[in-house]
Amino acid sequence: MHRRYYRRVIECRDGLVRISPYLALEAATADAEAPLTPEVAARHLRTALRAYASGEDAPSQAVPVALPGEGDGSLESDVRQLIRLSETLTAQF
To answer: Which residues form the DUF6545 domain (predicted)?
Structure first.
């Protein structure tokens, strides 16, 4: 069970890395180096997914999305951020 849990976390992170350049374009954040919060990412996710699916150009560099808290790189902290993103996305739609 633990292996499947860890694999799901990695799959979620992989998806966020792939979509993050499109999210950065949509969010148009003032600080391009700052991580996108789950709230900002959720707000722009559907548009970013459409842009990705249609093959639109995006910056080649990924930006951090929904990262765990400063100094807390634990798996549980990462999962909390992914859940926060999921709950925010669900609440918005």
So the answer is: 1-89
